[in-house]
Amino acid sequence: MNPDMITMAGGPAGDVTLLADNWHVPRIHVGDWFDTIITWLTDNVGPLFDFISTVVSGAVTWLTDVLTYLPPWGMIIIFAVLALWIRGWKAAVVSVIGFGLIDGMIEFEATMETLAQVLFAAVISVVIAVPLGIWAARNATVSRIVRPLMDFLQTLPVFVYLIPVIFFFSIGTVPGIVATVAFSLPPGVRLTELGIRQVDREMVEAGEAFGTSPWGILTGIQLPLALPSIMAGVNQVIMLALSMQVVAGMVGAPGLGTEVFGAVTRLQLGAGFEAGIAVVILAIYLDRLSASFGNRSTFHRMGAVFRNLRGRRTAADEEKTPADADRTAAAAG
Fold first, then answer.
1. For residues 115 and 122, what is the distance between their CA atoms, to the nearest angstrom?
2. Which of 25, 138, 176, 332 has fewest C-beta within 10 Å?
3. Do 282 and 105 form a contact (C-beta atoms < 8 A)?
4. Helix orientation angle between 72-86 and 89-104, rounded to the nearest 10 degrees
5. pLDDT by residue (tens digit) across 140-169?
6. How far is the C-alpha of 268 from the C-alpha of 51, rounded, in Å?
7. Distance from C-alpha of 186 to C-alpha of 199, rounded to nearest angstrom
8. How many CB atoms lie within 10 A of CB 185?
9. pTM for the full model?
10. What SS3 state is found at 100?
11. What are phi and psi of 70, to 5 degrees?
């Protein structure tokens, strides 16, 4: 205890702390207020939490079933093809080696469970973060409200997120997902707002001068120019979601987090190291792929593929047209 501080006698132990110069700060019951709010929400909004729990649990279970439907070698091929398409052959080779190592460590199923939860939480975070960031960029009042809220969420210790979600959703997958969404939300909001605010004002004014509607300016000028910043936010959302999922193993979220937490509690060094290696490999894979979506060449490549497919479909339809006309004429005759 600090020698300059003494505890007042006659009251609850540690209730009021006095300093040597008789100046003291009265006990502020922030924790009690927070506990009251959580208790009130639990008692009065229970059906809403049950509905959220049912939807989230069902969606994550379905996504996990999809990712574990094929044998590990089949999923490794899919991951390699995806890496080849987005990043090139080097990334494909690295992904084969990395996920092959995960399978060799008997961590593939746990990795897929973690991947399913990360993808679901990241999608929910992006769906919330991007519109909120756009709204904050276009409205100063919203920005003044959102910024301190994002500061609070971003600086709150990671383990504190787990306390209220246990009261709302008990233990398992759902509390881990909810905590992950709240934890990974701030960078998506911040970078979306920053990207739109950094769009050249003259470009926006030129659009307004040509009579473009606010929706047209947003979708035709601001969002395309802010896309690298927005995708950097999406990348950060995915990385934070993965880090939080490991911590969520403490509340029973299945996957690599449970493996790491179990190894720590049982002092199993080897098992913990293997689960940690699997987390690192998954993080590198997701980081490299999500970072590529901020590169315009990736979108151009994807656009070229879609244009090629559409061109082939149009050509096929044109080839059918004369035959269809002949059949129509024959039927008419």
1. 10
2. 332
3. no
4. 160
5. 999 999 999 998 888 888 888 888 888 788
6. 38
7. 20
8. 24
9. 0.76
10. helix
11. -85, 155
